[in-house]
Specification:
Number of helices of chain B: 13
Strand order of the largest sheet of chain A: 7-6-5-8-9
Protein name (chain B): Amidohydrolase family protein
Pfam families (chain B): Amidohydro_3 (PF07969), DHOase (PF12890)
Distance between the termini of chain A: 29 Å
Radius of gyration of chain A: 20 Å
Keywords (chain B): Pyrimidine biosynthesis, Zinc
CATH superfamily of chain B: Metal-dependent hydrolases
Oligomer: heterodimer
InterPro entries (chain B): Amidohydro_3, DHOase, DHOase/Allantoinase_Hydrolase, DHOase_cat, Metal-dep_hydrolase_composite, Metal_Hydrolase
Shape of chain A: globular
Order of helices and strands of chain A: HEHEHEHEHEHEEHEHHEHH
Organism (chain B): Stagnihabitans tardus
CATH class of chain B: Alpha Beta
Structural class of chain B: alpha/beta
Number of domains of chain B: 1
Number of strands of chain A: 9
């Protein structure tokens, strides 16, 4: 078992063996979560603070449940109504929280790199729950777990990531993770929603769904991030749906056993057909949500182990 | 007072490098080569380099408005420590230097500096790009050039009028080539780095489009024009062509010559510049353009920022870096890297800016002002930002291994460092 990270800021910092460690442990937490009595005590006595500078219901709930099932004391800071609004800087907020001695800090922020900045100022373990357009590592890990359970492996798969790639941190974390695990990656998007420099990513690029989906084992749809757009990237939602929205016809180009994924929340009728999203034979969207809790439990468990070990070493050092 | 330097490697930007002696009397260089006149104080340069002091074009000083970031006194000390003997100050202060009264105020305040300071004034009121300033009065009050600094006017008609008016007075305009519609909100340059790190980015073409527009306006108005920073290869062909027929020169910041976009690394905000750092290909193209003389001027674009404005998420953090004290050792990287000779480098650091601005400085010849820097180009050191003389410590070179130590700086024959 390998997991050396002190914080989980992005997939970029993780080695393939560390990713496998997280997924293996998460598999065990899936079993725990399916029991009636779901509690464990690996985080007993530890304090977890969820700090969401951007609104989120799903991710915050998932982290909160994960922490509670592992026995941590969980606090949700609603940052929207806090001193941040009064002009306090991110660093001051971090230092204030740090003084309250939390053990795990879960942070979502609208600016790329903000979570890295915060992590450099605190003593606890920091989990990135999404920073700007940069990374969303637990989402990529839960997607990987979903794929591994559905396909039986996480290598040598043809995976198509479709839609608003330019604005998506989910896409970035996913393509780093799936690339590290040696899969064949395709990006499908209108050119306005492809990030600049994408040709250097080592992915196959398409602006046509039928061509891009040909033979794909996994179809990952992305949410159209209307809130991150600063001007017309697409002519209209209906044209976008017509050309890039996933429906049964477009999916027919993919492998017959291809699975359909979406990080949620979905814009039904914009990037994905509602009926297809609910098709239990193709869509694994509900499984993704379930895997989310297990993966977050695994990440927090592993970070807590490293934190304890580090503090143990420090205590020994102080004695000697 | 008479000083006689012996055993000095003279860096003559109009000639070359040669080991000789140099004499200064009062405020002027009086002899090159020859023996010490009677009563002269002898300085053995020990074979180190003696060059004209650097003319640093485009320095931000925090007066008025942001004296906690940099004062004339602290900027002067930083300059002297870095071999800069003439500072060409920017008008992007609070308020902007856009009236003769403000210009007189900063001219008075600048007396606190140990090096020479000349001021640029705003081209338009409040640097807003709408109404021209009193260019005539400002020239009378000592403005050396006119610029709205990094603010690019989209009011093309107003800009054309200001350029036409400035032309009639022979005033030099300094412009920032950029298409603001494309570069709005950008914190990085289009490419793999910006996309992987999720930073809003701008295409290098935004600079080329801005350059092309300004070249059109220069052709239309006949203005004397200097582009503050050319930083992408795409701009070079048009610039090179224009220089053959128009009264145009161009500069580049030392940071765009020595750093690239990947140096930002883990969102290090001290590397956030205007324009953002470019690709390695662009950096190499800029070095070549300086060596070939397509780009005339290297400057620090010294921009002091306090810790608070830099300790923010990258997108929100202030842009710019201090550079007065690091310009010389950073620029020597171009020499140590084999890209150009010392005298070639000094053309861009002292001769060309002085010539373009109509100053007598920047030369190493008899009759020129005795503004000199003596330095050891090979002395290695690791930069510690807290040892900089600037009030602000936002340098991208913190912890960097550099070569080149200033041993002494003279302004008008007086030792200031």
């Amino acid at each position: 078992m390998t997991f050396r990270a002190r914080h989980l800021l992005g997939i970029d910092h993780l080695a393939p063996a560390e990713i496998t460690t997280v997924l293996d442990l998460a598999d065990r937490y899936v079993d725990l979560n399916r029991r009636t009595v779901k509690s464990a005590d690996v985080l007993a006595g530890m304090t977890q603070i969820n700090m969401f500078f951007e609104n989120s219901t799903r991710t915050q709930a998932s982290f909160e449940l994960a922490g509670k099932r592992l026995g941590a004391d969980v606090m949700n800071m609603s940052v929207a109504s806090s001193s941040v609004k009064k002009g306090e800087t991110l660093i001051d907020t971090a230092l204030t929280l740090n003084a309250m001695r939390p053990d795990l800090l879960v942070v979502r922020h609208g600016s790329s790199g903000a979570v890295n900045l915060l992590a450099s100022k605190v003593n606890c373990a920091v989990l990135n729950a999404g920073d700007g357009r940069h990374e969303h590592p637990t989402q990529a890990l839960l997607d990987a777990l979903t794929i591994r359970r559905a396909k039986g492996r996480l290598q040598r798969l043809t995976i198509a990531i479709c839609g608003d790639i330019a604005h998506s941190r989910v896409a970035r974390s996913n393509l780093i993770l799936l690339g590290k695990m040696e899969n064949r990656l395709r990006l499908i998007a209108p050119p306005t929603l492809m990030p600049p420099g994408v040709k250097d990513f080592g992915c196959e690029l398409y602006d046509n769904m039928a061509e891009g989906l040909k033979g794909a084992d996994v179809v990952m749809m992305l949410r159209l991030q209307k809130e991150r757009m600063d001007g017309g990237f697409i002519p209209s939602e209906r044209e976008y749906y017509h050309r890039y929205g996933l429906d049964a016809e477009k999916l027919s180009h993919a492998a017959p056993d291809a699975i359909v994924m979406h990080p949620g929340p979905m814009n039904r009728g914009v990037e994905i057909d509602g009926e297809l999203a609910d098709d239990i034979n193709r869509s694994v969207i509900q499984e993704q949500v379930e895997m989310g809790v297990a993966v977050r439990m695994a990440c927090m468990d592993l970070l807590a182990r490293n934190l304890r070990a580090e503090r143990g070493r420090a205590a020994l050092g102080a004695l000697a | 007072m008479t000083l006689h330097f012996t055993n000095a490697l003279l860096i003559d930007p109009e000639g070359g490098e040669h080991l000789s002696s140099l004499t200064i009397e009062g405020e002027t260089i009086t002899a090159i080569g020859g023996d010490a006149p009677a009563g002269a104080t002898l300085i053995d340069a020990g074979g180190h380099c003696l060059a004209p002091g650097i003319v640093d074009w485009g320095v931000k000083i925090g007066e008025p408005g942001e004296r906690h970031r940099e004062s004339f006194r602290s900027a002067g000390l930083a300059a002297a420590a870095g071999g800069v003997t003439t500072i060409i100050a920017r008008p992007d202060t609070k308020p902007a230097i856009d009236t003769p009264e403000t210009l007189e105020f900063v001219t008075r305040r600048a007396a606190e500096s140990v090096v020479r300071i000349r001021h640029m004034a705003a081209l338009t009121k409040g640097r807003e790009g709408q109404e021209m300033t009193e260019i005539g009065f400002l020239l009378d009050a000592g403005a050396i050039a006119f610029t709205d600094v990094f603010h690019v006017s989209t009011q093309t008609k107003a800009l054309a009028r200001a350029m036409t008016y400035a032309r009639s007075l022979g005033a030099l305009i300094v412009g920032h080539p950029q298409e603001p519609g494309l570069s709005a909100g950008a914190a990085a340059t289009h490419g793999k780095f910006a996309s992987l790190y999720g930073l809003p980015s701008v295409s290098p073409m935004a600079e080329k489009i801005g350059l092309d527009r300004d070249l059109g306006l220069i052709e239309m108005t006949g203005a004397r024009y200097h582009f503050d920073q050319i930083t992408v290869a795409a701009s070079l062909p048009a610039l090179e062509r224009a220089k053959k027929t128009l009264d145009v020169t161009a500069g580049v910041s030392i940071h765009h010559l020595t750093l690239n976009e990947y140096d930002v690394g883990d969102y290090r905000t001290f590397f956030k510049m205007t324009p953002p750092l470019r690709s390695e290909d662009d950096r190499m193209a800029m070095i070549e353009a300086v060596a070939e003389g397509v780009i005339d001027v290297i400057a620090s674009f010294h921009t002091p920022a306090d810790e608070e404005s830099k300790r923010l998420p990258y997108e929100e953090a202030a842009s710019g870096a201090v550079g007065l004290q690091t310009l010389l050792p950073a620029a020597l990287r171009l020499v140590h890297g084999g890209h150009m000779s010392l005298s070639q480098l000094w053309r861009a650091l002292s001769l060309n800016p002085a010539q373009r601005l109509g100053l007598p400085q920047g030369r190493l010849k008899v009759g020129a002002p005795a503004d000199l820097v003596l330095f050891d180009p090979h002395a290695p050191f690791v930069l510690d930002r807290f040892k900089l003389a600037s009030k602000s410590k936002n340098t991208p070179f913190d912890g960097a291994r550099m070569e080149g130590k200033v041993l002494g700086t003279w302004v008008a024959g007086q030792k200031v460092h």
